[in-house]
Structures are given as C-alpha cells and as structure tokens.
Sequence to fold (93 residues):
Amino acid sequence: MLTRVVVRVDGGYAGTPAVSTGIRYSVEIEGRASENELHSLVTYVDEIAEVCTHLYEMSLASFDSGAFPIVLGGDHSLGAGSVAAAGGCDWSP
Fold:
C-alpha cells in the first residue's frame, strides 16, 4: 500500500529579460505498490505536466502579443503554467 506520494514542481528564470527555464516534476513514493499502480500514478502526473506545459506556452504567447490571459480551471496545479509564463514576461512599457 502506498503511504505517501509527493509530486514536486520546480522551475526558474534566467536572462534579461527573465525567461523561464522550464517546468520540471519529480515524484517521491513511500510504501509498496504494484507496477500497474505506479504506472497509473506516473501517467497521471505526466498528464498534469502536459497540461501545465501547454498552458505555459499559451499564456506566454498571449503575454507576448500584448494581451492578458484569463485562465479558468478547477485545479490549483493550473497556476504552475500560467504563473510561470507571467513571471517570464518583460513587463516594461
């Protein structure tokens, strides 16, 4: 039985103006799980990462065109992509 699952999100910015260095995920698991259970868990994390990466790209394109994206969703993980894009934009006039 799995006793603990931790998914960590990491990313950063570099350069002038700051540009995102990307979003990276790691999964830490404690306890026992079958190979099928682990595969399902990793697939789920990969799907979330794919959504966040796509949201990052779409938000960044919106900012780059001078628009301000409005992101609606039902999960707190959506902020990983949209906030990363906002942080990587050149906000100077």
